């Protein structure tokens, strides 16, 4: 049996294992994260103490590791504080480097990141019989950001998101896909198709930062930004920009500890896929 915490960062939910004896295997993670058949989550991370803070290793719901999950990092920081490993501030070592975290108020945690090294790169790709113009931006992990010209309820996230996520233009790693609107200079609305989850999620932290970088680059947005996610949570992005380049930024958002318990052996015992006659 394996002890776990269930946590949520603005609707992005995760399983957290605290100082486990070993890292879980790909098949275990994929099974535990299957909704309806097991506990269900967008991903899983392990959390371990280290001299200067904590170390976080992250895997997407498909069991594949990823260097960074920003909503997960906020949850890791909140959990470290809850466990008494840190006070109101802690450094979280991720696969993309160290991230400084601090408690803001209630469940809100703020993270500070180095700005992206490269400006958003315009790309045009064909998918589902149309040409789509967007911007490629790496924020720890790759993102393709599309400015959606209509209401956000009309975004075909499941179909178009999946087609772009696997597009040859982003091979071999693929990409996260973010659909965004800037209704005002200080406001961003976003829906995301996440690589590794292979579906729309209620929030995508690195996608929020990638979209913010695109908005500032195009002169469509200015810091600070209030970002509305699909889960209804508002994430705040603040910092400093020099013209159309972000020089410093941080993100503050919800990080909740929902439950703790024990994963039993049955949680990893999934039935075979149904093959209908």
Into which percent range does the helicity of residues fall? 10-25%
User: What's the alpha carbon Rg, rounded to whole Å?
Assistant: 18 Å
CATH topology (level 3) name of the largest domain: Diaminopimelate Epimerase, Chain A, domain 1
* N-to-C SSE string, H for helix and E for strand: EEHEEEHEEEEEEHEEEHEEEE
Q: Beta-strand level of the residues, as a percent range? A: over 45%
At the first level of CATH, what is the class of the largest domain?
Answer: Alpha Beta
Unreliable segments (pLDDT under 50, ≥5 consecutive)? none
Total separate domains: 2
Largest sheet: 18 strands, mixed
Beta-strand segment tally: 18
Mean pLDDT score: 95
Put simply, the count of helices is 4
CATH superfamily of the largest domain: Diaminopimelate Epimerase, Chain A, domain 1
Question: What best-fitting shape do the alpha-carbon axes yield?
Answer: globular
Terminus-to-terminus distance: 37 Å
CATH architecture of the largest domain: Roll
Give descriptors for this structure.
alpha+beta; 16% helix; Diaminopimelate Epimerase, Chain A, domain 1; 18 strands; 277 residues
Describe this structure in words.
With 277 residues, the chain is of the alpha+beta class. It folds into two domains: 2-107 and 256-268, Roll (Diaminopimelate Epimerase, Chain A, domain 1); 121-247, Diaminopimelate Epimerase, Chain A, domain 1. It is built from four helices and 18 strands. It has an 18-stranded mixed β-sheet that branches. Strand 3 and strand 4 form a beta hairpin. The longest helix is centred in the last third of the chain and has 14 residues, at 205-218. The protein is globular. It starts with a strand and ends in a 14-residue tail after the last strand.
């Amino acid at each position: 049996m394996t002890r776990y915490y269930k946590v949520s960062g603005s609707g992005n939910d995760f399983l957290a294992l605290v100082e486990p004896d070993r890292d879980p295997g790909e098949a275990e993670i994929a099974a535990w994260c299957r909704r309806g058949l097991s506990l269900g989550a967008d991903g899983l991370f392990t959390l371990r103490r280290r001299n200067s803070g904590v170390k976080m290793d992250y895997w997407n719901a498909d069991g594949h590791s990823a260097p960074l999950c920003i909503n997960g990092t906020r949850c890791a920081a909140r959990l470290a504080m809850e466990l008494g490993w840190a006070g109101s501030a802690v450094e979280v070592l991720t696969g993309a480097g160290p991230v400084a975290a601090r408690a803001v108020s209630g469940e809100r945690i703020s993270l500070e990141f180095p700005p992206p090294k490269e400006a958003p790169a315009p790309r045009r790709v064909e998918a589902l019989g149309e040409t789509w113009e967007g911007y490629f931006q790496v924020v720890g992990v790759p993102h393709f950001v599309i400015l959606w010209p209509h209401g956000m309820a009309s975004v075909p996230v499941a179909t178009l998101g999946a087609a772009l996520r696997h597009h040859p233009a982003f091979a071999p790693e693929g990409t996260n896909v973010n659909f965004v609107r800037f209704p005002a200079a200080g406001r961003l609305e976003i829906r995301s198709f996440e690589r590794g989850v292979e579906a729309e999620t209620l929030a995508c932290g690195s996608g929020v930062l990638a979209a913010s970088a695109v908005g500032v680059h195009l002169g469509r947005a200015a810091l600070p930004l209030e970002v509305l996610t699909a889960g209804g949570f508002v994430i705040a992005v603040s910092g400093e920009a020099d013209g159309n380049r972000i020089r410093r930024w941080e993100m503050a958002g919800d990080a909740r500890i929902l439950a703790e318990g024990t994963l039993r052996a049955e949680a990893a015992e999934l039935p075979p896929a149904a093959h209908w006659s």
